[in-house]
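Continuing the batch. This is chain 6 of the set; chains 1 through 5 are on the previous pages. Same settings as before, nothing changed between runs. Recording input and output for traceability.
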Amino acid sequence: VSFAFLAMAISPRCLLSSSKFHPLLDRSPSPIATSLIWSGFRCLHHCSLSALAVVPLSCRSQQLLRHPCIPRRVASCHAAVPDPAQPLDGNGTGALLQRRGEFDFDLFTIGAGSGGVRAARFAANFGAKVAVCELPFATISSDSTGGIGGTCVLRGCVPKKLLVFGSKFAHDFEESQGFGWSFDSEPKHDWSTLIAQKNAELRRLTGVYRNTLSNAGVTLIEGRGKIVDPHTVEVNGKFYKAKHILVAVGSRAFVPDLPGKEFAITSDEALDLSSRPDKIGIVGGGYIALEFAGIFNGLGSEVHVFIRQKKVLRGFDEEIRDFVAEQMALRGINFHFEQTPLAIEKFGLGSLSLKTNKGTEHSFSQIMFATGRHPNTKNLGLEEVGVKISPKGAIEVDEYSRTNVESIWAVGDVTNRVNLTPVALMEGGAFAKSVFGGIDAKPDHRNVPSAVFTQPPIGSVGLTEEQAIEEFVNIDVYTENFRPMKATLSGLPDRTFMKIIVDVATNRVVGVHMCGDDAPEILQGVAIAIKACATKAQFDATVGIHPTAAEELVTMRTPTRRIRQNYSQASEVESGHAVTSA
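Output for chain 6:
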């Protein structure tokens, strides 16, 4: 409150006397003061002292907003200062909501996962009154349990990565012998210690998320939310009215209907087992299946992966798919391709067998299904209020994440667009900016980087070679398959694969893919270049960091192959490199 009145006390004449500001200002009152008044008004408005009237003041906005003394948050709203008397219209123009008696909240978010928390926090920072509901915490999700942080924090990215870290030490121990290390006895791993440490970290992160919401002024309600009408959510028998409702409930692991499915586990249970399985069967060929295969293999389990397709990782670049499967097999993982699960049988002492179309594998301690995830849209009341649901159970939304019901929105995996945590964060932030911040923000799903924490890991951004052939007339493909420096002393058969795809017409790099140590860390940096439309010439002009594997990305000079839509127009290629007709 003091901040608002202090701002109003600042005289334009005082600011005009400063040579630092003078070139930026005209004779109208200070835009600096205007922005400060506006910030103070938000504070007053949040305290229901809405009698204050603020008139937007003119300024040379583009010059001013580039000035280093102006906060970035003010600069991001570089339209005219919103009129606080104007209620939000919800179509992206944005304005501070006028408190209306018929609503308890400006925004009610169902789901406190990555997307929901981001949207709620941003909306609250823009001045909205926000509530979030979430189920009670549990490491394994169900219809009655969940937890603040959602899938990524509690039973996805974070705990999985912690287990990846734990499992990698086995390979490190093996590598170390080539560098002179020896052990009097074989290192031993205690599964219960790892799980206890993991769970302690999850509890800490849940507290962090809770504090984040509290510090933003968001009301947290524990319980299952159900939409009763376009502006009402019911939680534990209590009804809450909101101008906008956001659904951010994520997805749930799916196990196909087959005999013995009750004996199977999913990634939820795999992250919280009481003991490490001596032998585990994993059904599925996607990134979750392969990541858990690496985890259990590294911790000493015998691992069998059953895949219906001929290759792993459908949708990834073909060469990456082949390379990672070969590397994982060299580390001891058993792949069973073109095998469809038919039934699970349980025998004495808990032993399990998996029957497929090609036979039966026996003596599993656990059988895990990683056969996809389905949007968690059941029993939310969506159909009853008319929200359109896709045949796969996803909420259908427009480019601003709005459903066909004007007041209901959805972000994250529940929409089944790009099902990655950073994408849910982007979608949640864009929603809040558009609806509450006065910023026309649409989520951009182009060139989203991704990683698969297999062993060795994969990093990827942009188009695969197959996608690039479909989109562009002519492309050049650069590849490197090499033995990393560490393997020269370890003596292990580890290799690294890199690939760059270039649109010939523009020289723009349209895809980069890597499998090898530190691939996700390296590709995050490369993703910035791809997002900025960097050219191959700019890659080539970049000085490498030596000695690193990453420097190969700026030293690949000659295409491995040049793919042309019209073979007769293909240019000559250096000896040993092919020109291919698409």
